[in-house]
Every structure is written in structure tokens, then in C-alpha cells.
Amino acid sequence: MRSVRARAALGATAVVALALVGAGIAVLLVLRAHLTGQAGLQAEVVAREVAGQLALGVPYDGLETRDEEDHPVQVTDDEGRVVAVSKDLQAITGTGTDRVTPVRPPLTGGSTGSGDDRDDDDGSAAPAPGRGEVDSDDADFGNGTATVDGERADYRFASVRATTPGGETLTVHAGAPLASEQQAVGTVRDSMLAGLPVVLLVVAGVTWLVTRRALRPVEGIRREMAAITASEDLGRRVPEPGSGDEIARLARTTNETLAALESSVERQRRFVADASHELRSPIASLRTQLEVAEAHPELLDLPGAVADTVRLQTLAADLLLLARLDAGERPGGTRVDLGRLVREEVARRTGDRIAVTVSVPEGERFEVTGSRGQLARVLGNLLDNAERHARGAVTVEVRAAERGGVAVSVSDDGAGVPPGQRERIFERFVRLDDARSRDEGGAGLGLAIARDVAVRHGGGLTAGDAPEGGARFELRLPGAG
Hints:
Layout: H1 4-55, E1 73-77, E2 82-85, E3 89-93, E4 133-134, E5 140-148, E6 151-163, E7 169-177, H2 179-231, H3 246-295, H4 302-326, E8 334-337, H5 338-348, E9 356-359, E10 367-370, H6 372-389, E11 394-400, E12 406-412, H7 433-438, H8 446-456, E13 460-465, E14 471-477
Parallel strand pairs: 9-11
Antiparallel strand pairs: 1-2, 1-7, 3-5, 4-6, 5-6, 6-7, 8-10, 11-12, 12-14, 13-14
Helix pairs in contact: 1-2, 3-4, 4-8, 5-6, 6-8
């Protein structure tokens, strides 16, 4: 059962089978109850007719019933003794006693069987004065069997109590045949059993075809993904059906994932190429200096070799930090006071060509949660960028932002950043022409690292215009609270 279509067809068939079986059982039970109720009603009518005759004083041997073969009757007294039965009744069950032979000879209606009855001249018993009654309460019902004229069948029996004019209490058990009920239930059951396999086959076939049609786009997506994997061409896309359903959304999401993967791979390739290019220059310069020094020690440019080594070290550190950020390294949970961190970073930069002006409100704490080292790296990169491009002033301001956040602004009075380049400068290894001419050692990673760290800390970094006319970089981070 590795096929989705097979599992869907089997599941649908099983569900429909259970539903049909449950519905069929319910229908049979309702039908049986209805037909049994009808038979019970017929039996009650016959029982009340016989009970009415007994209440009028009709002798036991003079009782009349409709269609005695279909409605057997048994009359019992308070002690359970049989006093009368219908014609040709040979056996009975379900009435409390299985006797079908009266325990005493038929007497006149109203006789109590005490032995003091007197006969008239013609030999018949004198009717007792008064009139009996039939119990008006609901009849009692039960199922049983009866053998009439040699044929045994199932019956629904109704029991009605009656009182004769002589005060004797009798119980009339009258039956109605259940053959029609059994035949009807059997016919319906057989029809259901015959039709169930056909219905299940139809359900299975329809489910198979519908599922096959519904999954056809999925198979197209699978084939295209297999082709993309085999060709390693991330520029290909899977077909998107126009149905607008879940499969169409799956195809759209798959294409978005492929586009993101293609972009990520392209960025990785570009990153590797740019990193190789940036590393090649200082390594080649350092190797040349060392080879010259090996041949002519007196020509060794020691400051240049140190500068190239420092440049390599800085670039390696930047690449390592970017690799950690790309790997999803989460910032720490340390509470950092940005106002204090700014003062410490500015105080550490004693060799800068331009003094940095710090504006931090006294007595206030601007705490954020994150990595102190990474946030210090962001501030250092922003200050380095401002120092490279400023003419004579660099300003750092720390203030509270909306929604409990903290904002740090680094401004300079340089040439600024053109509006069309303000997002591009945050890309890796991107340096504007003017920046490249002014900065011989930069690799174009400082601002990219600064924004990545800011994003990892739940904030952001943007570029704009400074009041002094230069560039203004604003770092926004959520507060520690």
C-alpha cells in the first residue's frame, strides 16, 4: 500500500462500507420494530375481542376469533391454568405456559368452576347476572411460537386481562404471525447484501479515478524536482496548476523555495568568488614582500608586511563571523547597556583621525538583550565607516525609541550615500566607487556584518541623511524588557 491512490481508495471504501453497514442495521432494526409493532397491534385487537366476549359471559366453547390459523388464542386463569384455546392449536410458547389442553371442561360464561352450577332443562348453564369488564391498561407483548394444524410459526403475542360476569379474572393471549415481518426484513437484508459489493466497487473505482486525477499535478511536480536534482539546474521551476487548491499552493511554495535556494547558492558562489579575490591581493602582496626580503633582506618593508597581515586577519575574522551568522548562530541572552557600550568603544579608539562626539543622556540605561561582543562589533564597524568618510565630525547618539526600543545613530559630515545606493551598501563585498578610492584596505563586509547582527538581535540597520550633510546610520534594537 505504498500508493496514495490505493490507500485513498481503500480508506474511502472502508468508510463507506462501515457507513452502509451501520445504516443498513439501523434500517433493519427500524423496519423490524415497525412490523413487529403492527403485528402486536393486530394481536392486541384479537385479544381484546376475545376479552370482550368473556366480559359479556360468552362460554369458553363459544368464543369466536378471526382467522384462527393466523391468530391463535390461549386463555388462562389467575393460577395460570389453561381454560380455553383456539381451534387446532397444538403447541404454544411465549405466553407463560405451553399447555394447550384446558384443565377443565368448557363451562358457561361467568362460571367460577366451583361445582355448584345448575343446568337448565335444555342442559345449558344459566348465564350469571351482571357484566364483566376488560382491563383498559396497555396490553403486555412478547414473542413466541405456536403450532396450528401441524404448522409451526413465530408469533407476536398480546396479553389482555378480562373479568367475567361471575367475577373470574382471566388473561387472553392472542398471537399475530411474524412471517410477513420476517419476510420483509429478510428481503431488505438480502437486497442490501447483494447491493453492498456493487456500491463498494463503485466507490473504490470512483475514488481511484478522482485521486489519480487530483494527484496528477503532484506527479508532474515530482518529475520536475527529480529532473532539477539530476541536472542541478536551480533555474528550473515546477509546473503550477491553475486550480488554486492545495496542490497549486504546494507548487507555488516549491517554486518559491527553489527561487530562494537558487538565490542562496548564487550568493554563496559570489561570496566565495569575492572572498577569494579579497584574500588573493594581501596574500600575493605579503608573499612578494617575503620573497624580496629573502633575496634582499635590506629591502624588507616590515610595516607593509604587518599591514597586509592585519588586513588578512581582519578579513578572516569577518568571514568567520559571517559564516557563523549564516549558519544560524543565535545571539546570547546577556543584558547589555548600549549607552555604556558606546562610551567604552569610543574611549578605546584613541588613534582615530577625527574625534567622536558622544551624546548619551546621563543617568539613563538603554539595555538590550544579546551578544555584547557582536554588538560591539556593529558599533566598531559603524564608527570605522564614519571615520573613513567624515571630513571633520563624527557623532554618536543613543536615545530611547518607540515601543520600548533603543536607537543608536552614527553620523558624519562626509559626502553621504546616494538614495539609490542605501540598500546596496549593505550587501557583501559591495563598495561604492568613492569608498573604494578612499579606502584601500576595506573589503566591503563591515556594513553587511552590522546589518546581519542587527537582524539576528531582532532589530534593523538603515542608512539616511545626517544633519551635517553626510551619512547617518541608525541601529534599532528591542529593549531588554
